[in-house]
Amino acid sequence: MGKVKLKYFSRIRETIGKTSELVEIKSTNIQDLIEELQAMGEQYSVLKGRDFAIYSAVDQNIVTDVKTSIEGATEIAFFPPMTGG
Amino acid sequence: MGKVKLKYFSRIRETIGKTSELVEIKSTNIQDLIEELQAMGEQYSVLKGRDFAIYSAVDQNIVTDVKTSIEGATEIAFFPPMTGG
Amino acid sequence: MLNKIIVAVQKSDFDLNSELETLKLKTEKAGAVVIFVGKVRDLDDDNLRYLEIESFEDLAKSQIKEICDDAANKWDLEFILVKHRFGRLKINDNIVLVITSSKHRKNAYEASAFIMEYLKSNVPFWKKEVADKTQKWVENS
Amino acid sequence: MLNKIIVAVQKSDFDLNSELETLKLKTEKAGAVVIFVGKVRDLDDDNLRYLEIESFEDLAKSQIKEICDDAANKWDLEFILVKHRFGRLKINDNIVLVITSSKHRKNAYEASAFIMEYLKSNVPFWKKEVADKTQKWVENS
Fold first, then answer.
1. Domains, chain D, ranges and CATH?
2. What would be the CATH architecture of the domain defined by A2-79?
3. Do C30 and D20 touch (CB under 8 A)?
4. Mean pLDDT over residues D109-113, rounded?
5. Cβ–Cβ contacts within 10 Å for residue C96, how many?
6. ipTM of the complex, rounded to two decimals
7. Cα–Cα distance measured from residue B37 to residue B21, given in angstroms and rounded to the nearest whole number
8. What are the pLDDT digits (tens) for B55-65?
9. Of B12, C133, D94, D129, which is the most buried if we count CB atoms within 10 A?
10. Is C91 in CB contact (< 8 Å) with chain D?
């Protein structure tokens, strides 16, 4: 797949300890990517969504299906349920 | 009954040509009062409510029943449907 | 609750920023503020010159107070303000201001719509539209 | 219609009077203006020090635009404005401003409630309450 920019927000950002990072990935969908990131450290287990639902945005499109393709994506964001308003 | 202050608003005020007047009346309810006022001139027929509903307020209490007593009242207002807001 | 109801029937305009400041001084527990502004709009088929609003001032004020009390009983509100103008107004001039505030927004929305509904037909104001070609008293739709 | 939609995601506060002026410059046909202000409220069981709002700015802006377009398609509106703040906010500071305007008030009320409903859970903002005794990310209720 190549390099993608990963972005983290809110509780995910706090747990992983970064706002973003550039990572070389092999996965072609969200679900596989989350599995692949586990090798980078224990803190990435937050992405498995045990404590709260995980949302992702692929090139700024919010996706709900973890099987969504990320091929050709340049930016993938992970965040917990949104609480605006 | 004695003297009461009659007040007119909006289309009724325009037709009768006054905002208020002090009148010696004999009637004891709204319906009779409207009838009694007819002797004062043709313009008072507007109070009969042929073109629009007539509301009245006896001492600043809006009443819908024309049989409402006006005994002891000091002020009686007549007006068309309200259009606030 | 009752000391957080403000009602006025006035000729002068109102100022949204200062009303919001007043509200904030009175409550720190409200997260939702719904502000309704009714303003003079141009007619669809004629050019409005001005709107003349006639009022039975004292009675209007007491009628509005009554509806505010009703709203305060029906919904959990932190603040209610209603200011209604009368006199001669031009296009885009403000006519009425209704502010309702509550912890959660649903109450503020519902109370605002309720108060406006009541204002339309139960408070002694009458509007006359004076336009280029016509001049007529507004009828309730 | 589309040129009457204004959206912003910003750190700075907003000014109700000037937003109402902007609206009036854009439409003379609207009689009803519904303004929703969401502000920071104190907690029921602790003293809030501040609210920290995190945002994914660009995405937040495009998500809000989308909901405004939806609202414009669903209701007959003359104007829509949504401004949402992020950063550190104190009690009573404004968080969000939603203005909807229409000829008749029902549309403005419904569109306002619709936009707020959507903002709550579909736009990437996250709120953290930092209080005397506790510190926690707000969860949607």
1. 5-137 (3.90.1170.40)
2. Roll (3.10)
3. no
4. 98
5. 24
6. 0.94
7. 12
8. 999 999 999 89
9. B12
10. yes
